[in-house]
Structure formats: structure tokens, C-alpha cells
Amino acid sequence: MAVRLLISVLVISLFSFTYASDPAPLQDFCVAVKDDEAKVFVNGKICKDPNMVCADDFFFPGLNMPGNTSNAQGSKVTPVNVNQLPGLNTLGISLVRIDYAPYGLNPPHTHPRATEVLVVVEGTLFVGFVTSNPADPNVKNKLFTKTLHPGDVFVFPQGLIHFQFNVGKTNAFVFAGLSSQNPGVITIANAVFGSDPPINLDVLTKAFQVDANVIKYLQAQFK
Fold it and tell me: Which residues form the Cupin type-1 domain (predicted)?
């Protein structure tokens, strides 16, 4: 188990550095200051006094522990980005562990600031992503899918809608590297039907070409 975890992390690290999209650091490190302690707001996070930096600023424990998948989607994402590991600030990389119950789903979502490279450690996943709108309005968005097994790697390009679905009868988990210290995530259904305040009903009925009662039902699932 330990060997598999090490291989997963190494693969993710190599891919994430290759595709890093954040600006390059101008010093050895810039450990992030917590937002509630910052005196100014910048694009990213301000640096902790280097004389106050310690080893724990570069350390995060516990990715060997499964996440709790007892939820409607049957999945759990455990992030390790700059908000959990301040030493990642300015380094252009982050990591997640994702656990899936049998038939669990990490629903369609995007990362606006990062490419994601995923490696399966256990289980069988059906994964995919959809391209952006083609220049020709008569051409549909293209879907790319693949069934993955332990040791398989798949990459989701930055900003594109993607998903993972556990098609096996046993638990599954993966590690994924992302090319940003703070990749962000937009879960499509939550954003469209669960925003606060809600998107105007006329907008959604027009966009989806369905009856208003259908939209009301979908919005009710996210209250």
C-alpha cells in the first residue's frame, strides 16, 4: 500500500510541474498567511515572514485515510491546496485524494485555474470530459471518455467540464495533481440550480427549454 501511494504521488508531482499554470516564484518559498490574518488582499496569498516559517508549513498528514462517502453522490474529495498546505503558495501545484463508494460519482465540474492529472489507485472508474463550444455552431461539443483501472492515468484539460464515476462494486480511490495552488472548482448542477440567490426562473427555462416546474424541481434538490 505504501509503495502504491508513493508511486501515485510521484506521478502526480511530475505531471503537475509539467503543466503548472501559476506564475513562477521569485524566491525559495512564500508560505501563505491565513486570509483572516492578512492586512492586504492580493492575487494569491501574501508571504509569511521567512524567519517564522517552519517545517509544518510544508506538511499535510492523512491522505492515507479514506474520505467519508456517505452522501448523495457517494464520493469525497480531500483537497491539499494552499488553503490546507500554506507552503504551496506560489509553487503552482496542489493535490487531491478522491474516494468513491460503489457507483459513487464525482459529478460534472470544472477547475477554472488548473489542468488535472489523475491516477487510479483502487477500483474501476468511468471518466470523461467535454470540449468547449466549437467555432461552428452546427458542431456539438465532443465527449472523451475512458474506463480506468489501477495504475491508469487520465488528464482533464484546464477549464473543461469533467467527471468520474465508479462503475465497480467495490470502493475506489484516486490521487490527482492540479496545476495551480488554488485550482478552484465549479460543480455544474450546484452552480446552475443551487446558487444564492437563485438564477432567474425565466433564464433557466429559456436556457434548458423545459417547463418552469422542471426547473423548480431541480432547484429544490439544492436547497
Answer: 61-216
pLDDT band at 192 (very low <50, low <70, confident <90, very high): very high
pLDDT of residue 91: 92
Q: What are phi and psi of 214, to 5 degrees?
A: -65, -45
Binding residues for oxalate, as ranges, are: 106, 111, 116
Question: Would you list which residues are annotated within the binding site for Mn(2+)?
Answer: 109, 111, 116, 162
**pLDDT-derived band of residue 9, with 50, 70 and 90 as boundaries?**
low
Element (H, E) at 215: helix 212-220
Q: Is 151 left (phi over 0), alpha (psi -120 to 50) or beta?
A: left
Alpha carbons 198 and 218: distance in angstroms, whole number: 11
